[in-house]
Amino acid sequence: MKSDLLTKLNKQQLLAVTNDSGPLLVIAGPGSGKTRVIVHRVAFLISEKQVKPDEIMVVTFTNKASRELKDRLNGLLGQYDASRIISGTFHSIASKMLRINGDSIGIANNFSIYDREDQISIVRQACELVEVDTKRYNPSIFLSIISNAKSKMIDPILNQATSDSLFDKLAANVYLEYEKLLHDNQALDFDDLLLRACTLFEKSPLVLADLQNRIKYLLVDEFQDTNFVQYKFAKQLTGDSQNICVVGDPDQSIYSWRNADLRNILNFQKDFKNCTVVKLVENYRSTSNILNASQALISQNSNRITNDIETYNPEGTPIELHVAENEYDEASIITEKIKKLRLEGFSYENFAVTYRVNAQSRAFEEAFVRNGVPYKLIGALKFYQRREIKDIIAYLRIIQNSNDDNSMLRVINVPPRGIGERTVTALKNLANLNGDSVCHALLNLDETVLNIHKNGIKSLKNFQGILNEVIEESLSDHSLTSLLDKILSITGYREHILRELEGSEERWENIGELRSIAGQFDDIQPNEALNAFLDQVALVTAEDDPSSDSNESVTLITLHQTKGLEFPVVFIPGLEEGLLPHSRSMDSFDEIEEERRLFYVGITRAISNLYLSWSKYRTIFGTTTRTIRSQFVDNIPENLLKIVNTNKFQLEERSFTKTTNLFDQQNLLPTINEGDKVEHFKFGKGVVVQTIPRSGDFEIVVAFKVNGIKHLLSSVAKLKVLE
DNA sequence: ACATATGACGTTTTT
DNA sequence: CGTCATATGT
Ligand SMILES: Nc1ncnc2c1ncn2[C@@H]1O[C@H](COP(=O)(O)OP(=O)(O)OP(=O)(O)O)[C@@H](O)[C@H]1O
Hints:
This protein is α/β, with parallel strands linked by helices. It has 5 domains: 11-102 and 194-284, Rossmann fold (3-Layer(aba) Sandwich); 119-185, no CATH class; 310-379 and 549-645, Rossmann fold (3-Layer(aba) Sandwich); 383-430 and 448-539, PCRA, domain 4; 676-721. The protein is built from 26 helices and 22 strands. The strands form 5 sheets. It has a 7-stranded parallel beta sheet with strand order 11-12-10-13-14-9-17, sandwiched between helices. Helix 21 packs antiparallel against helix 22. The longest helix has 22 residues, at 454-475. The model is unreliable at 648-670 (pLDDT under 50). The structure holds adenosine-5'-triphosphate (ATP). The chain binds a DNA duplex through helix 5, helix 10, helix 19 and helix 21.
């Protein structure tokens, strides 16, 4: 066993695995065995250093990665129970801590966790309360401002005091009200889970000390995509032992839009001055063709930290670049390729089609269905955000947390039971008057105070009865499944669904699926089962989706979600300006570079075959437009690319190299000079600090008030000069 | 109160 | 193009 543990590692990996005390930073490129280091390090600590599994915490990027880690550990060390290590995403670990210890900072253990949809609904309510017109301002803008503030630990009250512009003040008010509403609903959003866990550590030194005592070793995978709060969380947990090991690759940082902050890596080296830094330099995954292409691509980025990486793997087959007429053509080219390669010995699960936006999956699904190619779609419309699932979850949440008005109001009339808008408002007002939740208001209903039609009262009484029965069932010692069944039967949800014209069968099947997932919690205490089940539901990461179970099928997946995965054959379609890089991420060099990293992550997933493609025409929002080949294709040396044009009409496409001057002509703006005050629709106001000529264009460096320094291209950025 | 029609609006990426 | 929230009719 010991041999297995240490022989399958190279010298640097060995160093990282056996360096068993003090802080450790592993920075290394793709396929260099970072994940392997984590697995073996944990195995080493357990089997050679007598560390108990439950003294080790490993933070992974997805829940699936956690499960795989445990599986691999169990394979490596038979006699220890690796499933006892503490492992999960930051969010799921924090949530568990709050359920256990949250009461010491005033968080009841039955809090609800709000997902994006719930959050939007709360933002809407907040807007209404502070009289912000949601038609003028999109609620999701506020949501991203709030999330950004939270992941930088900006307090809403402080925030309100320091904001000056009109919009900032508006946003600050919405933020404050949003917090109040979450509190009323006894709910936490994703950012709260991390934030409150940190507060818990600060406010309850005893809790923290206890955790620090128990957790002897902390490991964090994909460290390049952690945000400020997550890093703080990890730092706090580490305590004096400083046995913290973080592993990452700055070149694979692709979640800055979710507030991930690369500075964490730099700060780590400052915060842990004595940290050991290990760099891995060999790629074990890809052919040298693929690796060389990836290195050429990423070398275009500035301010890189990761060292270059090399491989002793064979050259492999050439990377192909296919030009398609439109997205359907593109899908059939790829389908044909899959069929052909399968005859050469690949099986369906060896293939992944990796794209920039979920909408791209459609053409592939259609082509695959037509050709009988089995596939699994990762992510897209997630199981748990389907309407029918969310309805049932809402019922469960009401049982879990009767203060969850948002869930209560979601299903108060689902299925329709005669409780209309007027009745709901009356009930809501009554609840407000008594400073009570809607659920309590209903359960303790005094109908004489409500001046509504008697039919309304009757409907409310009816629903009161329903709720009471469900509550009674939840208080019995029956399983979660029987609670679910009770909800389904007493509300008549099945009939409600089957009444619908479209997709009703599928909807009911989904409920069946939910029921069987709930069944997995039947052997836990019913009381805890509900919390555990709802936590899992709220914190699922894409690949836990039940629809992605099937093996022996081609994977359809966004580039973001391919992080950490590998496939023998990878297709990257849609290499067009506006798609990759995406049009919404072309406003600054930073954004373009992150898009480039995304492409880089995609390329480096491939083990042996890589197929790139783009379509000359693509239909977006129903309109078909001529496209331009992605600038990133030009970053890959020609000698590594085999250009394949299967088209019947073979026109000279070669003239479309480089970003064409589509914008340049009309946009020769009144020249922007250093010192000018400018406004950008996204980054806000700022001052031009530098202008640098760039082949017929200008790079403009702007110091934005809120967003800091950005490098913009004058032809692309919509800069307004302010007087 | 509820079902259907209409129009605005939007898509990166997700814990 | 499709979804969703709001407006309209029954
Ligand atoms: N020392 C080694 N000898 C042989 N194969 C190795 C070694 N280390 C890792 N590998 C293999 O290389 C591949 C990539 O390893 P791993 O997933 O750990 O890399 P990674 O650095 O986490 O990659 P990425 O950052 O791209 O997700 C895996 O298939 C792994 O089994």
